[in-house]
């Protein structure tokens, strides 16, 4: 699950760490400061939900040693090194050891924010994928992860079960955060290849040459794994950001596909992120590759197009976070519910999870509103509400469903208590629960 990402700042100079922290906090990041490498190392384990910015020159353990230790516990953790004048050779060495990037002193705060943003996005991707991978072994489990009762979610579940059993390659389009990676995991988990290799390559994150090597080889002497097309043999190969493949790479991929018999030994799931720009994978792939891939196609709907799911998802995630942070369940007012339903959600489910987490944290501190979160969440969300109106009926129903769901949960499935609180006769309550697909047994 996406979490609010942190930035750990490690610097022996107090003024320095304070000012970095203040600047990043002003840019909306959640920062933690450490006065030394040893202290930071004790706090930063594998799966650290964030990134690290560290000075290179520090008394005791220095930034380079810290980097080595961090890389040994979690080689995908983005570490940004702060280098002084004349530290260029060290910066180069740091990059070789796996540093994400470096910042030269005196640094430009805008560049720092930019780098931090990038690194946080990369970290989020890594952690999301890890979390999904941990759950991938159970097809049923992963299907349960897919929340939502809108007709498009129902259709999506059916498609996953159907396409999971089928043998062809799959093309998935959809805006960012709509669940494409989750669906790729689900397709693998419910199909005949579950238990075999699942190899995911984030194509957009690699330079062309590195991507060619990752996909087709040859691997470098110090790399322990096989090229992805070999590594995935007999299982599933997921290509995220397939639109970034160059012509030459597309041609080689086509070659790999053509060499396989039918049904293909390795299933390829290609994911594109072009919907954000109003395009699809058809616009970005060579026609011959597109036709080989597109026999099975899925397009995931944006969140704003499945209004019925917004409150359900919000509720479910808010509940999970309340449990995780050990605080009371969140209550959503009718006005806030309407705003959740009207927000454009450019970041889709990922953004909603993020808003739910921050709403829980805010309410634990007893301040802030969901409205303010929706306003501040994203620059692109400046006009907070979508202009595409939804019918009033849809709001009313979504809100009614949420109220009943919450009240049932609070009363642990006691129909009498819910009837009492909502002033509903038993028959009406039963009818509404049936209409909204709510079952008493889920609350007891
Ligand atoms: N229907 C859903 N029910 C529950 N969780 C969901 C659903 N769809 C997506 N999520 C969750 O939302 C987050 C984003 O999903 P995912 O990473 O699969 O999106 P994506 O389309 O691959 O995004 P990107 O284009 O940025 O790679 C994940 O934490 C995922 O588990
Ligand atoms: Mg993805």
What can be said about this structure in brief?
The chain is 51% helix and 11% strand.
Notes on the protein architecture:
The protein has 444 residues and is α/β, with parallel strands linked by helices. 51% of the residues lie in helices and 11% in strands. The chain is built from 20 helices and 10 strands. The strands form 2 sheets. It has a 5-stranded parallel β-sheet with strand order 2-1-3-4-5, with helices on both faces. It has a 5-stranded parallel β-sheet with strand order 7-8-9-6-10. It is globular, with a radius of gyration of 24 Å. Bound molecules: adenosine-5'-triphosphate and magnesium ion.
Write the layout of secondary structure elements.
Blueprint: E1 6-10, H1 14-26, E2 30-34, H2 37-43, E3 50-55, H3 63-73, E4 79-83, H4 88-97, E5 101-104, H5 109-135, H6 139-145, H7 151-165, E6 170-174, H8 180-190, E7 198-202, H9 208-216, H10 228-231, E8 236-240, H11 247-259, E9 267-271, H12 281-284, H13 287-293, E10 296-300, H14 307-325, H15 334-342, H16 348-364, H17 370-376, H18 392-410, H19 415-422, H20 426-435
Helix pairs in contact: 6-8, 7-8, 14-15, 14-16, 14-18
Bound molecules: adenosine-5'-triphosphate (ATP) and magnesium ion.
Adenosine-5'-triphosphate is lined by residues 1-2, 128, 145-148, 174, 176-182, 273, 349-350, 353.
